[in-house]
Amino acid sequence: MYSFSTRLTGKINEIETKLIDALKEEGFGILTEIDVQATLKKKLGLEKRPYKILGACNPTLANQAIDAEPDIGLLLPCNVVIREEEDGTIAVAFMDPEAVLNLVDRDDVADLAKEVRSRLLRVREVVGGSVMK
């Protein structure tokens, strides 16, 4: 698996705010925000449910990873997806940093990946639970 997630009920804007606040509590900032729904509407004229990709980064841990392996930036930032499902629930999915960063095959990077994963798991708990998808 390359991700872990949770599904919630509620308003997507409120869940997104709670998600961003929880990420900040774990030392992550949002470097990028891609509004897929708006982009597909603008570029292709398609009507889609809300779908955003947030590029989350913990600068301290990212710096350690880049110091260990300069090309690791190809695998950063940690993407978090928030989207509305057909049934109206809100899915929040997290890239699993262990799955992705273990591509580097270095013990020091694997240790960093475990730390990042544990922080993202705590964010998932704060946002809404431990439901695995």
UniProtKB/TrEMBL annotation:
The protein's name in its UniProt record: DUF302 domain-containing protein
Species the sequence originates in: endosymbiont of Escarpia spicata
SUPFAM superfamilies tied to this protein: TT1751-like
DUF302 domain location: 34-97
PANTHER family named in the record: SLR5037 PROTEIN (PTHR38342)
Top-level taxon in the UniProt lineage: Bacteria
